[in-house]
TrEMBL record:
Residues 11-170 form the MPN domain. It holds the Pfam family Prok-JAB. SUPFAM superfamilies: JAB1/MPN domain. This is M67 family metallopeptidase. Keywords: Hydrolase, Metal-binding, Metalloprotease, Protease, Zinc. Gene3D superfamilies: Cytidine Deaminase, domain 2. It comes from Pseudonocardia zijingensis. Transmembrane segments: none annotated. InterPro entries: JAB_dom_prok, JAMM/MPN+_dom, MPN, VirAsm_ModProt. It comes from the Bacteria. CDD domains: MPN_like (cd08070).
Amino acid sequence: MDAERRLDAVLVIRADLVEDVMAHAREEHPHEACGIIAGPEGAERPERFIRMVNAAKPSGDEAAEAEERALRSVVLSGDHAEYQGEQRSSTTYYTFDRKERLRVNDEMDDRDEWPVVIYHSHTRSPAYPSQVDIDYASGPLSDPRIHYVIVSTREGAPPTVGEYEFRSFRIVDGEVTEEDVEVVESYMFSHTGADDVPDRA
Ligand SMILES: [Zn+2]
């Protein structure tokens, strides 16, 4: 990658948004949670937290039970935990609901926002992009500016931000680069150039 195209290798994010992501992830566990943190066009400043539906998640009780059974039968094997044949489900995979995603896109357009952060949780594997995540990020919605945040709610997840495994990646043309996560109380005093803008809507 040449120098002009290199992006800041850091995600600066407010502490309350980190808590929002983790709260969502814990609520959905053992299913993967997913969502977007929108920010104003032209700034890399995540501000508006948007919980999204994981369309891979079943809705009825019977389905949930079947999923529990499938979950127990999965044999985990490191990075390939998400690739156990037909076992892929909302416990190993997320996908946005197409209609909701379109609605949120329109909403962001109307508000001059863009998806600064796209987050999701891993519930049994480390907070690192799976091949599915990489393919998704390299697909038609690809944007090299997006910070892909992945958190893990599995037992014993090693903390990277506070007590959480909360990591951020750039995914460009199938290439994954991890970046630092800097948690701030407010964007007022951080280096995002937001000093004339209120940090809460
Ligand atoms: Zn994933």
